[in-house]
């Protein structure tokens, strides 16, 4: 188990690493991109939803489409 100081240190190192990646233009924040894509796709999924469908279906569809797009983007990144 980590002490409070060790936890704070670890969080600081992770934050510094993240900022360095941003500054160098390296790395894509895939979780942020996933959120942005799903947010854009969600209204379309709601519009296409069957009225008798599960209420969570549009959100699940938006996230699934975001994951598919990110997988394709990661392939082309390599």
Structure description:
With 78 residues, the chain is mostly helical. The protein has one domain (4-77). 76% of the residues lie in helices and 0% in strands. The protein is built from three helices and no strands. The chain has helices at 4-23, 30-47, 57-77. The chain is elongated and about 50 Å long. The model has no long low-confidence stretch (mean pLDDT 81).
Low-confidence stretches: none
Order of helices and strands: HHH
Gross morphology: elongated
Number of strands: 0
- Helix-and-strand structural type: mainly alpha
Work out the radius of gyration: 18 Å
List keywords for this structure.
about 80 residues; mainly alpha; about 0% strand
How is the secondary structure organized here?
Elements: H1 4-23, H2 30-47, H3 57-77
Quick description:
Helix 2 (30-47) packs across helix 3. The chain has one domain.
């Amino acid at each position: 188990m980590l002490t409070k100081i060790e936890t704070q240190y670890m969080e600081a190192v992770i934050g510094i690493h993240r900022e360095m990646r941003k500054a160098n233009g390296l790395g894509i924040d895939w979780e942020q991109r996933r959120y942005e894509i799903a947010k854009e796709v969600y209204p379309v999924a709601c519009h296409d939803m069957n009225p008798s469908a599960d209420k969570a279906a549009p959100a699940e569809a938006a996230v699934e489409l975001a994951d598919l797009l990110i997988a394709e983007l990661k392939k082309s990144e390599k």
